[in-house]
Design a protein that fits this description.
The complex is a heterodimer of chains A (117) and B (112).
Chain A (H helix, E strand, L loop, with lengths): L3 E4 L2 E4 L5 E7 L6 E7 L5 E8 L5 E2 L8 E7 L2 E6 L8 E9 L3 E7 L3 E5 L1
Parallel strand pairs in A: 2-11
Antiparallel strand pairs in A: 1-3, 3-8, 4-5, 4-9, 5-6, 7-8, 9-10, 9-11
Chain B lengths: L2 E4 L4 E4 L4 E3 L1 E4 L5 E7 L5 E7 L5 E4 L2 E4 L9 E3 L8 E8 L7 E2 L3 E6 L1
Parallel strand pairs in B: 2-12
Antiparallel strand pairs in B: 1-4, 3-9, 5-6, 5-10, 7-8, 8-9, 10-11, 10-12
Classes of the chains: A mainly beta (117), B mainly beta (112).
Chain lengths: 117, 112
């Protein structure tokens, strides 16, 4: 149980285009999902907290108009990188909490590697 | 703010060696502490956790004890295997919004 998937796992796009990344909880309903960014050989940096049915809460320094987050259902959150540029190339990871178990433990997706040319 | 400092790697060991990865934290209140593991090509997985002082988390032969007096949560395993090669992250959550603060990660390579 507590499986989180991400799609796509890999995406290459041209500069200026927008990219959507999906995060799904497969066997539980997730009221809260988190989006992280991980640079090579570095730790995870929290970008935003996504709650179903409400606006995402962004961490300081994260542009909300650049990284659009939608959490339209209890099993799906999406991150859209708008007008992507090479500096947006990174590994994006989502996680979800299962309120039926505990809100403290996050279950992570396998990540999406974005390369902007 | 809350933060986690963990031992820098990379760490290279032989099979059956003893592994320890140091982790210390700074937090207001009473945090819950976690170790997550990221195997090559996979997402992070919860390895173990402890929610209060003196608790010991354990899983797959790994152990870590929540030490409030030294603000530490060191990870240990008595006899590592090649399959333990991964990146290990120490993390904490100390707020009602359950945000995780991660350490920098320690890359462990176990040689046969």
């Amino acid at each position: 149980g507590a499986v989180v998937s991400q799609h796509p796992s890999w995406v290459i796009c041209k500069s200026g285009t927008s990219v959507k990344i999906e995060c799904r909880s497969l066997d539980f309903q997730a009221t809260t999902m988190f989006w992280y960014r991980q640079f090579p050989k570095q730790s995870l940096m929290l970008m935003a907290t996504s709650n179903e049915g409400s606006k995402a809460t962004y961490e300081q320094g994260v542009e909300k108009d650049k990284f659009l987050i939608n959490h339209a259902s209890l099993t799906l959150s999406t991150l859209t990188v708008t007008s992507a540029h090479p500096e947006d190339s990174s590994f994006y990871i989502c996680s979800a909490t299962n309120p039926r178990v505990t809100l403290e433990t996050q279950y992570f997706g396998p990540g999406t590697r974005l390369l902007v040319l | 703010g809350d933060s986690v400092t963990q031992m820098e790697g990379p760490v290279t060991l032989s099979e059956e060696a003893f592994l320890t990865i140091n982790c210390t934290y700074t937090a207001t209140g009473y945090p819950s502490l976690f170790w997550y593991v990221q195997y090559p090509g996979e997402g992070l997985q919860l390895l173990l956790k402890a929610t209060k002082a003196d608790d010991k988390g354990s899983n797959k032969g790994f152990e870590a004890t929540y030490r409030k007096e030294t603000t530490s949560f060191h990870l240990e395993k008595g006899s590592v295997q090649v399959s333990d090669s991964a990146v290990y992250f120490c993390a904490l959550t100390a707020s009602n919004d359950y945000k995780l603060s991660f350490g920098a990660g320690t890359t462990v390579t176990v040689r046969a």
